[in-house]
């Protein structure tokens, strides 16, 4: 599916226009615009370059298209109604994931767990101030650059002036794993997994095991319950009608 970006904010649009004008000096101050330019580069609107201490940026074809039309260029991908359908599916999956899972009533049901994986881009601008003895500005820049190139150069001297966190992509992933009571599940279950299979709390299952109402297997200092022992416990405690 083609990547969809949110519309630019007023500040991002201002930085994009400034880059389109050739980055004239005296307009932008501080370092905030550099972080914004890097965020625009993630949206394929500009290209940022840093070489030997000099910073430059240029507008891409997508950036010029956005300045002219106020929107991103259309690319090959699913139709808009299909995108809306996929978005509706994602929202439905989120609502389903928020609900409490129902107890498993059969022995051969697979467990499907759906997750959303997000790609997040973090942009941070840091500055460091140093004092050096030098003959001129060029010599001062070379000395500072030499110090910066050393491992852990300026360690502890950096100060963050601006940061941006932007979610640029989302992907739905589904993990399918067998139910502990299915044929593909393990032969022995921990107390915690046995409680999930029975729909009982960890403390309740522990008490039943300690009272020998559920057979268990002792491995080292840990107790495990077989699938057959769980089914036997359910059969022995299943009653019909009134029980006196």
From TrEMBL:
One family from Pfam that matches here is: HTH_17
The Helix-turn-helix domain covers 188-237
Superkingdom in the source lineage: Bacteria
The entry's protein name is: Excisionase family DNA binding protein
Q: Which organism is it from?
A: Nocardiopsis mwathae
